[in-house]
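Researcher: Batch entry, complex prediction.
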Amino acid sequence: MAKLRRTMLYVPGNNAGMIKDAHIYRSDSVMFDLEDAVSVNEKDTARFLVFKALKTLDYEGIETVVRINSIESGFGEEDVKAIVRAKPDVIRLPKTETADDIHEIESLIEREEKNCGYETGTVALMAAIESPLGVLNAYSIATASKRLIGIALGAEDYVTCLKTTRSPGGTELLFARSQILNAARAAGIYALDTVYSDLNNEEGFINEIKHIKQLGFDGKSIITPRQIEPVHRIFAPTEKEIEYARKTIEGIREAEKKKSGVISVDGKMVDKPFVERAERILELAKASGVLKDEKEGEND
Amino acid sequence: MTENELGRMIPKKIDHIGKLLPFEGAYSHTPLVKKEKGNRELPKLNKLINSIEEVIVKTGLKDGMTISFHHHFRNGDKILPMVMNVISEMGIKDLTIAASSLTSAHSGLVEHIKKGTVKRLITSGIRGRLAEEISNGLMDIPVLIHSHGGRARGIETGQIKIDVAFLGVPSCDVYGNANGYTGKSACGSLGYARVDAAYAEKVVLITDNIVEYPNTPFSIHQDQVDAIVVVDEVGDPEGISTDAVRITKNPRDLLLAELVSEVVINSGYFEPGFSIQTGSGGASVATTRFLRQHMENRDIKASWALGGISGPMVKLHEDGFINRLLDVQSFDTEAIRSIGANRYHSEIDASYYANPLNKGCAVNKLNVVILSALEIDTNFNVNVITGSDGVIRGASGGHSDTAIGSGLSIIVAPLIRGRTSTVIDSVQTVITPGSTVDVLVTDRGIAVNPRREEIKARFMKAGLPVYSITDLKEKAEKIVGKPDPIKFRKKIVGLVEYRDGTIIDVIRQVEN
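Model: Structure tokens for the complex:
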């Protein structure tokens, strides 16, 4: 089953208490931040703390991601050295603008993997796109490395570059979101949305989740455990969707027996894309606990 | 035959009845009855005394006696300090203080103990500087720690004999009818004070709010009260009650609350007409929010809630999810408002609440209770009185009472606090025995007492994260390690009394 990446929880890399508890809220991924959440005079503290946490704590199967500093900042290379050694699942590169940025970080990661005696490709890579140039280069970024598992939008820097601000409806982000999503899908990798930072606007948050789900995103970055439940809830398929997906799969099995490519479910024509969608819905339903694995039930 | 006061001849004795007392005049045997019939000033008949000092003299308080206080004014209490300062100045010595609990408002007792005014303490809890000093060996006689139900039992059976009860009340009339929910110092239920009012030899009410007679509905009644003193203020409203308790936004508490609610609904106890008590902690209160959702979804209503009542519970009552509230202590302004306004938000006293030896206390009828813990051990014994440094810092409260009385006792606590594990091999001080604890809910999984295999099976079926309690302990120790044992001296500074009056544990002086 494909890995779920509905929620990626930001955890400041300099906060030992939060690092220790990062996974207990069961987001799909946790992201230890060495970049913007950490002030310049704490960069090495945070790097060391995250290194130790990854080496010693058991994150119980929750995907671990580390957002490192950019290479230009002067901290990025040291980050790669320490973090690759600690073997998180993913390193996330901020402020990616070109395919060359990816090549540069990839060669650093590869070098460290060799130094540590790890197999090449042990640590996956994710790129955050946070500027108009990055958005325009989305496809070449998305296809720059085999390590890349996804690209993400970082909206705060991006809207500043656009000379605007974030609005509740997110009109200003529509182009970037669509572009990044398209690039990710064309490259066959994950598309991840930006954070929603107005914690007191529950309705606005819900609307944004519905919006990005409809666009096709796999999930979004989140800044507090409180944001996990709404995202998972909205991404969970509805009973109606599950029912329809089941019928589709059953229908296609029947059709395969009869060696026919096209079937009809509830009076609508169904073919290959429908089947793929149905499979994805059933997988998502199982993963989000809406649908219990039938085999599990028998063993109770 | 004897001639009585009216000249009637009355036999001295009658077979099968015994000696007869002849009438000696309407006023001679009832000293409190007014003698000035026809005097238009009579409605002013009252029990008012001018000052604390005067009332102390009037009660006949002497060296070595036992006096009592309640803790409904919590951190805002001014009664105990006020009375003790006067007693101290009067030079009375060697008193025993039997308080329903002691809070951070009572640090002044340290000086009274040092001076010899106070010789012994009997209480549910101690906090702050007083607790630290006691843990460091301040007193010669160990403090007796009791549960709320245990205190009521002790008072009713005569184990705790109160000579004078000094009871602060938010409103009172001149004849001694008092309640807790009117006045600037409103505290809601007077549940703990009512036991003292009923059993103390002398009862003194202290109020800052004299109201018109009769002050109905009343919690403490005129027939129990000896004297009343009016003072400027009985408490600091800020310390008496918190503003309406709000559902926490702390993610960990919410995580715990959600897990607790899952435990409740999958326990088998979540059915129409169930009853519940929650504590006042963040996670415990937040549980009400998640439970409400499940109650709505499954169309389940609770018959009653017990406790320690706070705003979120009141909201459930007012919105029709809980039929009745039984309230021994009101935690916030919302609960205080509600106990005055809602017909089925009833005040109960501590004996009704939890006395194990009366003819039936409310905890016995409780289905589910949600409790906290400072420490819990692998035998499910719970400590809520001493901290990880061995110093007293909490209260026994209704913990052991509700744990044994309820059908399902749930302990909720983060698995790791600061840098120590909450689950350990053996708790420092046992307040509640593990044989009365059913489920532990932590932020890293739940554990079920092996006594309750049937509940565990239900949780497993529901897909809840069930571990053995030893697994949880090891999980925590992997992260924070095992602390060095705390060093104690030999001296016993506290006795922990179980609700039945037996001693369940002792607290020793900390090495310092």
